[in-house]
Specification:
Mean pLDDT: 76
Low-confidence stretches: 71-82
Distance between the termini: 66 Å
Strand order of the largest sheet: 1-3-2
Order of helices and strands: HEHHEEEHEEEE
Number of strands: 8
Radius of gyration: 21 Å
Largest sheet: 3 strands, antiparallel
Number of helices: 4
Structural class: alpha+beta
Shape: elongated
Length: 151
């Protein structure tokens, strides 16, 4: 019979492999593992260390343990387009339809240790530090009223 910390780490790695846990997602903390699996803090700590040592996650002191690596190891060597060029198509098409495009920045985070992600079925790794931005694009319909001049 395998040690409990191995069983726990294998179950979490399975969640990563299946896509239930994605790159950048936080893995359950020591306290959550203690509560969910009814184990000691030593067992919980060993489980997290096992996941990290196998290259599936990275511990960030004071923040937690986050999913990093995936099964294939492809590296992005250059930037694939810019934020402006990506946004330009969205903005221009909305303006053509009479809408005013807006973007709200929901979160800006610097990932010191990089991130891995799946793009078109392939896994890529961008080594850190990486600026991760979550934006919410939305459209506002212009009604042509005198007070609707905030674009």
């Amino acid at each position: 019979m395998k040690p409990k910390f191995i069983s726990i780490s294998e179950s979490i790695i399975e969640k990563i492999k299946s896509g239930e846990l994605q790159p950048g997602d936080k893995i359950p903390s020591e306290n959550e593992l203690i509560k969910n699996f009814k184990v000691s803090n030593t067992t919980a700590r060993k489980s997290l260390l096992e996941i990290e040592s196998k290259g599936w996650a990275q511990r960030i002191k004071g923040k937690g343990t986050f999913v990093l690596n995936r099964t294939e190891d492809h590296h992005i060597l250059r930037t694939l387009g810019s934020i402006d060029s990506t946004r330009r198509g969205f903005d221009e098409s909305l303006r053509a339809e009479g809408f005013t495009p807006k973007n709200i920045v929901l979160e800006k985070t610097v990932l010191q240790h990089g991130i891995s992600s799946e793009i078109s079925g392939k896994h890529f790794i961008i080594e850190g530090p990486v600026l991760m931005i979550h934006q919410l694009p939305y459209k506002k319909q212009r009604l042509g009223l005198p007070w609707d001049n905030d674009h």
